[in-house]
């Protein structure tokens, strides 16, 4: 017999069915939020996976198009690989959940979320986040939860919790906050330049809502929760640590990691590992543990240096940014390029402009197909960290970093009416040692401005880190963390924005949450850092967007026509529009509201296409002066095509002020001539004159 539990959450009913389906999973919750239904399950392997030094957690978010009454497109009528939205949702579920599992747990765990039904006003992503937390909390899998997640919007300067579809359209904030019963454990945000104080207020408003949900989850766990199973600990034996310290003292380890050159540090660590492997050659049971033990030894050394000695591995002050550099136009022939360097992190972003018809079409869990006019893609090749492995396309990390940069820049992009282009930026990681995603935001801003995209304001991003001690008050926040501080620290708090406010946040942590003072200090530090980056590094290179797009970029002209005239522009079976394209070499896009975009490289072709379209949609009237092409010659005159399917006759007597014996003496087929309309008769026939045009 299954049990059902309900609570009111942001004005809608959240219902959880336990033991109704998926009984063989370690934990399962059938989630209902409005008419949105998600099955969330948590399963774990019986034994740890051998030969690994990490917790093998896998999070899946499965979008099924039947949930919105759709059949997948294409030849293969079933869902394929995970969409970008599914990958990003999986990452948002993973980030707050992962720190709550035991650090020495090596059993495979899969959190699966199957979207069965979608109510546009009740987010399936949020429902899956809550479902994963509930399924794991009631399971027998070791888990120091529960945690809860709330989404926050900002509509008319008021906070809206778990906003519906209509509210999302007008919201200035898309914030997701996960919490435990005590602290904030995950933050993800996109915002229209929301001030820092307002963002902090929103985060803790969401934290308060999360406490209501956690209370609800605890009630379910009290009635339905299974006893947590015991597991084989993979913790490193203390005697191994003691033996390692006899071979390499803490002082020697500190000297090995205390350098600002990543390659030197890695070489030092390789030498230390060789020492350990040689010393423990006869201790076969220790050899497989050396990698993890060395990692822990480094971690303890770095954390002690930072927290107790107030020393960073590269010698910087706690709030000091690494050396910065910026440049533009380093890649010829592309539409725009910019490179941003911070220490050993270097990103080059290339901007490409195209007609709006090149926008990305997305077939997702929405009532209608969506398009993305701005696309940001991020690449992280192995050479950027001095490694070698084949490229297999973007992984979840690359997709996540690209989406973060995209979210940070969308608020400053011009509207389609202001700039009728599809825009793609690609960030290529040339070198990596900490926070490449934020460097890609800086490089993309430079590239967009160099390409002539009229962004409203420049955007910069920076990341802060954290090392904590034994109490909530014992901590140090680090500005601009490098890779080592990210690996061995407790937090990666990325914030992007303009001078006036935040446009994106992504927070990852490895501990059980952050207190308000830590979050406030991290946001303050990122504000100071990005202000410095903008003023001292980026704006001196390019202060504002270029007035025009580059010579290799397509030029786009828009005209507005009567929607009733669209069919005349297109013509029967597309003959008219295809003829214009063939003649002028342009690309033409027409929207249902009559907005016509003409795209081409050469201005002559654009102007000619514009002229033809205007002629098509404009009624020919006496007295007009028009340009057209001679398409037919008779003994009595020449026929001039003013627009597709609109020809006028220039009688031989109207060709010139001089006497004309033969039409071909004045014009030939293909000539482009300027004419004046002298009559449109009752039959719609158009009579033209070349000699009556005023000089």
UniProtKB/TrEMBL annotation:
Similarity comment text for this entry: Belongs to the polyribonucleotide nucleotidyltransferase family.
Catalytic activities: RNA(n+1) + phosphate = RNA(n) + a ribonucleoside 5'-diphosphate
Entry function: Involved in mRNA degradation. Catalyzes the phosphorolysis of single-stranded polyribonucleotides processively in the 3'- to 5'-direction.
InterPro entries to which the protein is assigned, alphabetical: ExoRNase_PH_dom1 (IPR001247), ExoRNase_PH_dom2 (IPR015847), ExoRNase_PH_dom2_sf (IPR036345), KH_dom (IPR004087), KH_dom_type_1 (IPR004088), KH_dom_type_1_sf (IPR036612), KIX_dom (IPR003101), NA-bd_OB-fold (IPR012340)
Protein name: Polyribonucleotide nucleotidyltransferase
Domain of life the protein comes from: Bacteria
Localization, UniProt: Cytoplasm
Enzyme class: transferase
Gene that produces this protein: pnp
Record domain KIX: where: 223-302
Positions of the S1 motif domain: 623-691
Main location, first listed in the record: cytoplasm
TM region positions: none
